[in-house]
Amino acid sequence: MNDSIKKIAVFSSGGDAPGMNAAIRAVVRTAIHCGIEVYGIYRGYQGLIEGDLKKLANKDMANIIHRGGTILKTARSKDFMTTQGRREAHKILEAYDIDAMIAIGGNGTLTGAKVFIEEYGFPIVGIPGTIDNDLYGTDLTIGFDTAVNTAIEAVDRIRDTADSHNRIFFIEVMGRHAGFIALNTGIGSGASDILIPEDYETMDDLLKLVGSSKSRKKLFNLVIVAEGSKLGGINSIADHVQQHYPDREIRVAVIGHLQRGGSPTAIDRVLASRLGYGAVKAVVAGKSGIMLGLRDNSLNEVSLEDAITKKKQVEEELIELAKVLAS
Ligand code: F6P
Hints:
The chain is α/β, with parallel strands linked by helices. It folds into 2 domains: 7-143 and 264-309, Rossmann fold; 147-260, Phosphofructokinase domain (Rossmann fold, 3-Layer(aba) Sandwich). It has helices at residues 20-33, 44-49, 83-96, 107-120, 144-165, 180-189, 203-212, 234-244, 266-284, 304-309, 316-326; strands at 7-12, 37-41, 53-56, 100-105, 124-128, 168-173, 193-195, 222-226, 250-254, 290-295, 298-303. The strands form 2 sheets. It has a 7-stranded mixed sheet with strand order 3-2-1-4-5-10-11, sandwiched between helices. A 4-stranded parallel sheet has the order 7-8-6-9, sandwiched between helices. The chain is elongated. Bound molecules: 6-O-phosphono-beta-D-fructofuranose. 6-O-phosphono-beta-D-fructofuranose is lined by residues 15, 106, 130-132, 174-176, 227, 260.
C-alpha cells in the first residue's frame, strides 16, 4: 500500500480503440473510491506536454461506457519522443503534483511510458488499449473484440454481393504487424483464405488454392488480408491473382478505420472495466513499470519491457483450423 499516492492522471494515446472509455471510467471511479484525485490528460503525451489536463469527477464518467473512441482524445506525439518533450511533460506533472499515471494504449504508448519511467522514475502503470491485440502478456487488448465483430459484420455484407456476382473479394483488415484481427475475422466469417504476417503461405499457395477451387468443388470468394501481409499490399495481391485468372472477377475492399469505431462489445466493456480497476489497485500498491493484462480470465501483471518487446504469438492451432475449415 502506497499512502503517498494522492493524485493520479489517466490518458489514452496512439490509435483509439472501442472500450477505452470504459477503462477511463473504471480508473476514475476506482481512484475516487480509494480517496485519490484523478486528472484526465487530453490528447495523450502531446496534451501532457502542452498542459492539457482537467480534474475528473464521477459524474464526468456518466454515459460513456457504451461509447467508442476516447473522451480524453488521443494523439501520436512526436514531441514526446524527444528528451526536451519529456522534460516539458515532467514539469507539468510536477506543477500539478501528480503522483502516478495510468497509460491506456498500444506498443508506442507503453514504449513512451517505459522511457519516461527510466528517465524520471515516475510511476506509470499501463493498460493495453489497441484493436491489434499485439501486446505480450494479455490474452486480449481493449478494442480487439469489437474490431473483429465489426470486421465480420462488414465481411458478411460483402459475402452477399460476392456471392451474387460470383466474384473473389480481397478484404483488408487492420494489423500492421500482427494477424490477430485478420485470423479471427477470417475464421468468424468463413473466409476462403487468410493472409497474415505470421503465416508461411506464399503467392504460389494462394494461386493454387484459387485454381483448385473448381476441382475441389469449393467456392473461393473471400480472402481476408492483414495490412501487414507478407505477400504485399492488397492491390498488388489482387492484381497478381487477376493476371493468373483473367476469367475471374476480382474486387478489393478495405475496411479501414470502420474497425476502430463503434460501441464496444460486452467483452471489451468488461475487460476495460477490470483493467481500469486493476490498474488503480496496482498504483495504490506502489507498482510501476508494468502493464495489466488478462490471462486465463484473471488479471495478470507483465513488465512493460516484456509487453513491448516480447512477441505475442498468433495461435498456430487457429492458423491450422482456418485452413482445414476453408478446405
Ligand atoms: O495500431 C492500431 C492501428 O489501428 C493499426 O491496426 C493500424 O495500422 C493503425 O493503427 C492505423 O493508424 P492511423 O489511425 O494513425 O492511420
